[in-house]
Write a structure and sequence with these properties.
Belongs to the acyl-CoA dehydrogenase family. Helix content is about 50%, strand content about 15%. The chain has eleven helices and eleven strands. A hairpin with a 2-residue loop joins strand 10 and strand 11. Strands 4-5-9-8 form a four-stranded antiparallel sheet, with no helix packed on it. The protein has a three-stranded mixed sheet with strand order 3-6-7, covered by helices on one side. It has a two-stranded antiparallel sheet with strand order 1-2.
Length: about 375
């Protein structure tokens, strides 16, 4: 008997393949991502198809991580799929965080519009490297907040803030005397100013990645998530599921790229036979199947750990490294198999390569996760020595 998550995944896949993929050459996608007009047009279609925000059910409950994986992999079959289905970053992670730690009032005001797909959000954490700000090491955070009456006043600079342009909800991280804090803010706000939107290797996320100046932003005290100094604790709640969601979505994109490369290799003739019959090409496609299968299993394993209630910090680091590196190999082979066509915009294969290359950095680069795992290995070894 099919499970509910299987029927959700099937519905999403049908929607992506029939309704979303035809939009992939829509001129409303530019260097800084799809326009909000395009986003809302696709979300209207998803709403009618029953494919909008599929990971959050009508009663407000959340699919398990294993169930979420089935859905989000399917939304990733097109670069436009996650934004059409409202499962894209950073919104999916922000919805998860608010659902876990937001007060009833905060959920009503900030989470509701996100779940409905009528608003986008941004997560303001990363800071400029040239000023020594927070990146992979969030403890370097320089954005400060101080209590002034019943408001907090925030000042600082942020960079690589995905989706800030056009977002309606912001989660701002800053440091008080107690430690890291998170604040919910309505956007736009005159105290939050976009300095520029960066030109980056990827362009699938609405609003692009912005550099932001925050000057004397006043936030009511009841818009702080939790208590002063608890920001990093809440970041950990969001972190592992968000890492894994990236793996899910980009696995879907790599699956689609491999479909396109396979179709090309089976149709294209060279040296007297189809490309797929040449061992060099056939072996690359075979290696793709191995990497895709291993990625799916790694996601399922980590999702199972998270579903036990564990933070899954170690497991999500392992999954993020394994999946991002494997999918990069898949995307690279797809480009190689398709030759000149692979590096052109004739198909989404070149975009998949660009997006997945960025994935190796987003939510912690491979090297940071390996370093973290190496520290755990040493701790465990010391503990075993007594």
């Amino acid at each position: 008997m099919p499970h509910q998550d299987d029927s959700i995944a099937a519905k999403i896949e049908a929607f992506i393949r029939t309704e979303v993929i035809p939009y992939e050459k829509d001129p409303r996608t530019g260097p800084h991502g799809p326009s909000d007009e395009l986003v809302q047009e696709l979300r209207d279609k998803a709403r009618k198809a029953g494919a909008l925000t599929p990971h959050i059910l009508a009663d407000g409950s959340h699919l398990t991580q294993r169930e979420t994986a089935k859905a989000l992999i399917k939304t990733g079959l097109s670069p436009l799929g996650p934004l059409a289905c409202n499962t894209m970053a950073p919104d999916e992670g922000n919805m998860y965080l608010l659902g876990k730690v937001g007060s009833p009032e905060q959920k009503s005001r900030f989470l509701g519009p996100l779940v409905s797909g009528k608003a986008r959000s941004a997560f303001f954490m990363t800071e400029p490297a040239d000023a020594g700000g927070a990146g992979s090491d969030p403890s370097m955070m320089q954005t400060r907040c101080r209590l002034d009456g019943n408001h907090w006043v925030i000042n600082g600079r942020k960079k690589f803030i995905t989706g800030a342009e056009g977002a309606r909800v912001g989660i701002v991280m800053a440091k008080s005397d107690d430690g890291a804090c998170m604040f919910l803010v309505d956007l736009p706000n005159p105290a939050i100013r976009t300095l520029r939107v960066l030109d980056t290797i990827d362009n699938s996320m609405p609003g692009g990645h912005a550099e932001i100046d925050i000057e004397n932003l006043r936030v009511p005290a009841d818009q702080m998530l939790g208590a002063s100094g608890e920001g990093f604790k809440y970041a950990q709640i969001r972190l592992s599921p968000a890492r894994l969601s990236h793996c899910m979505r980009w696995l879907g994109l790599a699956i689609r790229a491999n479909e396109i490369a396979t179709d090309y290799a089976c149709r294209r003739q060279a040296f007297g036979k189809p490309l797929v019959d040449h061992e060099g090409v056939g072996f690359m496609l075979a290696e793709n199947l191995i990497d895709l299968q291993q990625s799916e299993l790694m996601i399922d394993w980590c999702a199972g750990v998270l579903d036990t209630g564990s933070l899954g910090t170690t497991e999500s680091s392992m999954a993020k490294v394994a999946v991002s590196e494997a999918l990069m190999r898949v995307a690279d082979r797809c480009v190689q198999v398709m030759g000149g066509t692979g590096v052109s915009t004739e198909t989404i294969v070149e975009q998949a390569f660009r997006e997945i290359r960025a994935f190796r950095i987003y939510d912690g680069p491979t090297e940071v996760h390996k370093w973290s795992l190496a520290k755990k290995i040493k701790r465990d070894w010391k503990a075993a020595q007594g």
